[in-house]
Amino acid sequence: MKALPLLALVFATGFSASLPVRAATDFSAAEQSVFMEDHLAGLRPPLTLHYVFRKTGTMEEAFDDKVDVALTAQPDGSCCAASPQFFSGKRAITLPPVEGAKGNPAILYFLERDIKEMQRLTKGQPNYFRKRIRMAVYQGATVRDVNLPYKGKPVAVKEFSISPYLDDPNHARFEKLINKSYVFMMSSAVPGGLYGIRTRISGASAGDAPLMVEEMLIDGAGTPSKP
C-alpha cells in the first residue's frame, strides 16, 4: 500500500468504520464538504498550496510556522500527487505523501498532527480521538455561512463547527479537552477548497484567555472571528 492511501484510510475510511452502517447517501453536509469533496478539481499542477499556522494560548509556548502541500501531476497527467512540508526547522513533522489525492490532504495532515498532540497531552489513544472527531462531524456539526477576506477581497466560506468531547462519556480521562472545539472553513473560492482550520481550548471561565488556539489558514487569508 502506498503512503497516503494509508493516511486516508486510517483517518477517513477508518473513521467511517466507527460509525453505524449507513446508506451511501447517509452523510452529513459537514462530512461531504470536509472529507468527501474533490477539493483539488480544477487545479493544474505543478503548484503548491501554502498555509500559515499560528499557535497561541496560555497552556504552552506560542509560535508561528507554515504548512506547504506540493501538488504534482499523476503519471497520466491528472491531479494530483501531494507532498507535505508541515512546519519548518526543528518543528518539522514527517508525514506521508498522497498519491491520487482528491480531497485536500492538508485537512488530514492537520488532524493527524492534532491527534498526536492530544495523545501527548492526555496519553489517550489516537483511534479514540479520530472516532470522536468523525462522530461529531457526522452527528453534531453546526453550519454557518460567512464572508472572510482572501487577498484583500471577501469570499464566501462555509464554517463547520464541532465540539467532540462535550458529551464524551470518558471525558473524566480527558478533562483538558472537554471544551475543545474545531472549526473547518471550506470555500470553493480559494485553491484547494480549504480556507482554514481552527481548534480552541477555552479557559476555565468565560473571561479567561484561551488555553490553546491553533489555526492553519490559507496564505492570503485574514484572521477569522473567534467561535
UniProtKB/TrEMBL annotation:
State the UniProt keywords alphabetically: Signal
Q: Signal peptide position in this chain?
A: 1-23
- Name of the protein: Uncharacterized protein
